[in-house]
Amino acid sequence: MAARRTTKSRTQNNSHLPLNRNGENEVSQGRAQLTLIKCRPKLDHLLRSRCRLAFIVISVLAMLVVIRSGISASRGYALVETHNQAQRIEQENERLRIEIARLKSPQRIQQIASEELGMGVPNKMYFSHEK
Length: 131
Prior knowledge:
Layout: H1 2-13, E1 27-28, E2 31-32, H2 45-104, H3 106-115
Antiparallel strand pairs: 1-2
């Protein structure tokens, strides 16, 4: 027990000295001997949380860029399709105008009247001035 008391008293008296691997203070020739104690470095939780926040913000922004480019691409495809449809409609409209002009021609109307309906041009024309 005496040995334990001396160890305790030595530990209590030298509490300002660094501990060695055994958990005891080291004393060498009346001076404190410094020992390197390896311990896990303390993590900076504030820095870690800021890094997490920055990562999340950057990830969200990247996702928004990707989504926006996808929307832009789909709108571009829709615009090209609308442009192609407008060109087809304009071509159809031009074809219909040509067909209307052909159907309205006086030569065609005269041919249908004489051949299909048996009509002819009268020899004499009479005008009436009745009121």
